[in-house]
Amino acid sequence: MNAFGGASEVELLAERDDDLELAQLHSIDCFNRLINLQIPLDRSNREAYGEPHEFPENPGGDGPGSAIWGTTYLTTTQLLPAGRPLLGAVLRALPAGLVLIAISRRLPDGIWWWRALVLGALNIGAFFALLFVAASRLPGGVAATMIAAQPLLVAGLSTVLLSERVSARLVLAAVVGVTGVGLLVLPAGAMLDAVGVAAAVGAAAVFAVGIVLSKRWPSPAPILATTGWQLASGGLLALPFALILEGVPARLSVANPAGYAYLTIIGAAVAYVLWLRGIRALPPTRVAFLALLSPVVATALDWIMRGQRLTPLQAVGGLIVLGSVVASRLQRLPQPTSGAIAPAPQEAA
Predict the structure, then answer these.
(1) How many other CB atoms are found less than 10 A from the CB of residue 52?
(2) Which of 39, 66, 258, 264 is 20 to 30 A removed from 276 (C-alpha atoms)?
(3) Is the pTM here over 0.90, yes or no?
(4) pLDDT tens digits, residue range 27-62?
(5) 231 to each of 91, 112, 209, 241, 340, how far by Cα in Å?
(6) Cα–Cα–Cα angle for 318, 277, 173, nearest 5°?
(7) 252 DSSP assignment
(8) Are the beta carbons of 246 and 128 closer than 8 angstroms?
(9) CA 330 → CA 169, 286, 292, 325, distances in Å?
């Protein structure tokens, strides 16, 4: 209190800081409840936002996140300007990453500056760039089928880097899943291009490495901050390529901002938080299988929203993909192998 009985400037500033802190905690709580993390809003527990969270395994895993990615194709073709996939990737990742960092109020420290950059490049920046090359030189179904091979790559990398023993049944389920994606989206008589094939294989490889390294390097930060670091770094890495190769569109239609907003909020912020939460909670091979749901959702939306005809062969392919995902979920948890490189401990992060 001051001499006139009113609150002092120090007290007012303290109250304002408390209000800002409560507002920040409330925004974190709202986002957490949106993605079903269910972190309680309790001022006495606010320090928990600075600690790593371990999420129990749940039946859904990252299924919703992979399904959201399946809506990207319809959004891109219907709401975004044509011929600018890299710009779409930047506007999808960078704003979402900056918002998540602002909400969590946490920046990387120590080795996590370069780890966040590497993971952002693998999961977002390099992946989108290679995907752009593959999509521009190959039919979409060919690129999707090749990228669907990532569960096989994740299985091999998990054996080496995470000391996981991968069963023959899991490998068979991965092969069946790739076959199902091929039946679902692969056009008849598709022509192959060497550069496009290399880019598609590279996209699958960098994304598989990103999944396994995300598991090997457990982040000490909350999931919102970790996701924000990767989205922001991946968006920044893709930005110069977007500006050089595509440039900025001269004008935007009324629908374009709505499309970018959807991809930023739902397609990046929500979907990638769910994706990285799945990597924290599940073995990486199971997370990789869930990514096969994306082409299934994309095909289903084309059938429902755009009236495209679904052939019997495509229907069989979709059922095969769903069966492979279910088969991967029925596998026992992978066991450590002898003599393999052990995962990095939590303390090392």
Answers:
(1) 15
(2) 258
(3) no
(4) 444 444 444 443 333 333 333 334 433 334 444 445
(5) 10, 14, 16, 16, 31
(6) 35
(7) -
(8) no
(9) 10, 10, 16, 9
